[in-house]
Amino acid sequence: LDPEWLAVDSIPRVDASDVNPARFARDFESVNRPVIVSGLCADWPATRGEWTRDRLLATHGDVKFTVGGYQMRLRDFYAYGDDARDDLPLYLFDKKFCEKAPSLAAQYSPPDIFADDLFALLGENDRPDHRWLIAGGERSGSGFHKDPNATSAWNAVISGRKKWILFAPDETPPGVHPSADGSAVVQPVTLVEWYMNFYGHVYETDGESETDEDNNESKTDEEEKDEEEEEANRSSVRRRRRRRRSSARRGVDPRLDPRVTTRRRRRRR
User: Fold this and answer.
1) How far is it, in rounded angstroms, from Cα 24 to Cα 34?
2) Exposed/middle/buried for 184, CB within 10 Å: 0-12, 13-18, 19+?
3) What is the pLDDT of residues 147-184, one digit of tens each?
């Protein structure tokens, strides 16, 4: 990953000792403002050694969790992640983890600033999905989306780092094209592709950026040809990525999928 993609940190941070439910509701929840609260989950068993890789493998290594829509043993997921070189590796995203591994449910609890949970009034059996176990390696993650049921999620990072890209509800990220009702979104296939092509536009100022100035300059036929070739190459890469993802969804190793390998051989000739 390009270090510049990780350099900007514009979400406000507060220490857990400086925020209570009243302040959180006033300064953040009521105005729909994101915030990072440091140390809020420091007393969880999950953050005090129970959810390290070695510990989870020892206690839940053979439990199958949802990874990319499929069920995979935790130890196999870690092995896959160690060797993954994809632009968008599969990541673990399981809404039933407390049922599959009940002891994990006892190793965390919602912080008091999130205790006001109206969906809890529906009861555990009737409320919408409300908790997920998420784990992934470098470059993994979700595309642009809105949280379901008009909710605002809270996430706790137990280990590693998570990069957030957030936009106001009335702003559309560059390179992202939602449908009129927001039910479908057209966007780059991978996060890396979005970063490469659109991330720089997020921080453009009111004045002309370097990109704007370059676009206003006259271009030679050779430059236009180079740009067309570059766009063709990007389109080819996107097609290959889609084929690989399609193979993964069907449970087929892309290296053994004739739809992928045949095209690869043709390009090498």
Assistant:
1) 10
2) exposed
3) 877 777 899 999 998 888 888 888 899 999 988 887 78
